[in-house]
Design brief:
Two copies of one chain form a homodimer. The first copy, chain A, is of the alpha/beta class and about 375 residues long. Chain A is globular. In chain A, the strands form four sheets. The first copy, chain A, has a seven-stranded mixed sheet, with helices on both faces. In chain A, strands 11-14-13 form a three-stranded antiparallel sheet, with helices on one face. In chain A, strands 1-12 form a two-stranded parallel sheet. In chain A, helix 9 crosses helix 10. The first copy, chain A, has 13 helices and 14 strands. Chain A folds into two domains: about 240 residues, Type I PLP-dependent aspartate aminotransferase-like (Major domain) (Aspartate Aminotransferase, domain 2), CATH 3.40.640.10; about 120 residues, Aspartate Aminotransferase, domain 1, CATH 3.90.1150.10. The two termini of chain A are about 40 Å apart. The interface between A and B is large, with 59 and 59 residues.
Chain lengths: ~375, ~375
């Protein structure tokens, strides 16, 4: 295997050296003046990135832990929720809500389809309402990013809370927690927030706080965490090293400006799609600017994406993602969330091109990199 | 405040530079060959440290998350458990079991008392049994380490499962999961395992697996994690950076040999106690070799431990721990778990001595450091 590594998956994502440097500092005590200012700044910065005036609760866990926090705090057994499922992470909502014995209704799409506000409104009407709609902003398994603002409006009109998995979208594409009336937003450190995995976060609207249910919970209990954070304490020893890294990463994001960051993601997505198409590949994820998080590409006829992924890894030290579940071997996914620039895209495309050629795929050689660079420039708005 | 920092608390604890170097490596994908061997080795090493042939389940959370995992997987609502409480972390068991609506009975001691096997046996008889006894091996808030082997034997005789919080004890003092019949053992990365906070682990006996209950759970579900670990997968994106650090730290522990590590902790505890006594201070934690994790010392008459802790921090950059709850201001605690040697103890004692003298305490000057060094040598058994 090549010595040098290229992490080009949709999560975990590459982490800037400044963040790695921060997490490798000697451990400090979480109740000391060495940590409290870091904690305070991190919580404030999270509020800015979430675009919310509500508290953002910080948990030491994977993003799925914060998804469970949403369900465990909101849903009592037997309460009806509507899960919008169009991929792997929609299915995760279903699994969590089922584990908590909610009455789980679904609005199900084929993997790769884009959930629509009208469908959500229709399904809620059909059901006579639901306590909450659990949905995925960016479905990492397919590359689809839905129109969250429209769906939240539809759910709100039907009296349902909007509960959003924004693990791979927050900090990559626009998300307005307060302005769009998102009742619960959950995210994680290891995607666009450019920090190693191990931290998850959740914001909840006043409406969501008022709608809390009766399920048992402790580590992920909202109130325990909110009370502790209010005095810059933490309910449990937090992953201080990762918080120090997140603080630095959020500072980088906010210094760049969220609008500029979103624009870069749009251009990265465009570059990836245009490069792939120039090579003659067929996109699986939508060819639209909203899907700026991960690009999913169909393996050419006769080519197994699993083989492509393995060869990229063994020959070049490049990690991209295979398809999940039924899509395994049929698609491959190039991430461009967080600490990515256009040369990560051209690296991915150049390597995919040579390996596909080796595997005997009929592709157009020598055009993808140039087309990607052009497409990246075209989209410059800032 | 002084520039140089000394973290001398019972957790989080100082982390060796080798471990900090490991966690600051570029992030790798958790399903890639860059991570799987690290994961496999870490899980195997955890088994060696736990002294168990059962799977050790690894969670991305604080130690309290693994405590919740114990309760959520074992206890259905209404099932009786016996919580042994003699401090802050006994109270945590009570809080978690109450959150899960177990029928919580308690065996309560004054903070600083040592739970005894006879008391546990007697209380279980009085109750007519309980599904599980939830107890704390090393009560970090008081410095007490109980005779876990005897208590587990007593619980086992009464047909109760033994569920142990070994967060601050595992890797510091002897703990034999299988040989002592410990049904569930939970621990965390940030104490004797010499890794930053953010990872927790749990082992469960066959008896415990067979006794699982009906409470809702997802992130902390044992089966979900066991199944994933069996194929070196992880159920959720793990904190890969922290796992890389834990791998290195566990290697250091096992290379040194657990017996040698336990012996060093005994000698560190002895050094700390003898030094404190030589200064004329009164111990709060027991003056026995088992209490080798943290030494709790009473503040001299007229001295506020809160003031002592603040001055150590501001003048010398030294962090030690105050008392918890009702003991706040009345005791102070010097940790010696994990990456500690005798000069950490002499640093703590020398600084405590000078600050207490400043505060007007009547203490013996100039003897503590020498006495600590002598006591550390006396105990050399290896």
């Amino acid at each position: 295997m090549s010595e040098k590594r290229y992490l080009l998956t949709p999560g975990p994502t590459p982490v800037p050296p400044e963040v790695l440097a921060a997490i490798s500092q000697p451990v400090v005590h979480h109740r000391s003046p060495d940590f409290r200012p870091v904690y305070e700044r991190t919580l404030a910065r999270l509020g800015e990135v979430f675009r919310t005036r509500s508290d953002v609760l910080l948990f030491g866990s994977a993003g799925s832990g914060a998804m469970e926090a949403a369900v465990a705090n909101l849903c009592s057994a037997g309460e009806r929720v509507l899960v919008v499922s169009a991929g792997q992470f929609g299915e995760r909502w279903r699994a969590i809500a089922s584990a908590y014995r909610a009455e789980v209704e679904t609005l199900e799409y084929a993997w790769g389809e884009i959930p629509a506000a009208d469908d959500v409104a229709g399904r809620l009407q059909e059901l006579g309402g639901a306590k909450a709609v659990l949905l995925t902003h960016s479905e990492t398994s397919t590359g689809v990013v839905c129109d969250l603002q429209a769906i939240a409006a539809a759910a709100g009109e039907q009296g349902a809370l909007t509960v959003v998995d924004a693990v791979s979208s927050l900090g990559a594409v626009p998300l307005e927690t307060d302005a769009w009336g998102l009742d619960v937003v959950v995210s994680g450190s290891q995607k666009a927030l450019m920090t190693p995995p191990g931290l998850a976060m959740l914001s909840a609207s006043e409406r969501a706080w008022a709608a809390r249910g009766e399920s048992p919970r402790f580590y992920f209990d909202w109130e325990r965490t909110r009370k502790a954070q209010a005095t810059l304490d933490a309910p449990f020893t937090p992953p201080v090293s990762l918080v120090a890294g997140l603080d630095v990463a959020l500072g980088m994001l906010l210094d760049a400006g969220l609008e500029a960051v979103f624009d870069r993601h749009v251009r990265l997505g465009r570059a990836c799609r245009e490069g792939a198409k120039a090579m003659g590949l067929e996109l699986f994820s939508p060819d639209d600017d909203r899907s700026a998080v991960v690009t999913a590409i169909r393996a050419p006829d006769g080519i197994d994406a699993t083989e492509l992924v393995a060869r990229l890894r063994d020959r070049f030290g490049i990690t991209i993602a295979n398809g999940h579940a039924a899509l395994k071997g049929r698609i491959f996914r190039i991430g461009h969330i967080g600490y990515f620039d256009v040369f990560d895209i051209t690296t991915a495309l150049a390597a995919v091109e040579i390996v596909l050629a080796d595997l005997g795929a009929e592709i157009e050689r020598g055009v993808a990199v140039t087309r990607a660079l052009e497409a990246f420039e075209e989209r410059a708005r800032v």
